[in-house]
Amino acid sequence: MNLPPKVTPRAFARLAQINDGAPGPALRVAVAGGGCSGFQYDIRMDDAAPDDLVLEAQGQRVLVDPVSLPFLAGAVIDWSDELIGARFTIDNPNATSSCGCGTSFSI
Predict the structure, then answer these.
(1) What span, in angstroms and rounded, lies between the C-alpha atoms of 35 and 76?
(2) 6-106: which CATH topology?
(3) Whole-angstrom distance between the N-terminal and C-terminal Cα of the chain?
(4) How confident is the model at residue 96, as a pLDDT?
(5) What would the pLDDT profile of 26-63 be if each residue is shown by its tens digit?
(6) Which residue from 10, 12, 47 is spatially nearest to 26, judged by alpha carbons?
């Protein structure tokens, strides 16, 4: 059985900052074909669809569509704020390789 992705408290906290602490648009994490490694992450604010997996904490939601779910099984969605930039990151155990920027991967 595939484990669902997890979202760190730091990622939920950043999402709450984006939404000014109120429930607002959810963060959608999806996988699409393309990128320099074969697949790429699509991370954006969105509304929930009926068949989405909804991960919720701190009044905030992260969405994963059913097509992307097998690619993100066991992944950890986090927030990184470093000198090189701030962004949502994905630690994906299914990825066999990834590009330098972390937005595309191969399986």
Answers:
(1) 20
(2) Hypothetical Protein Aq_1857; Chain: A; (2.60.300)
(3) 18
(4) 67
(5) 999 998 876 565 788 899 999 999 999 999 998 999 99
(6) 47
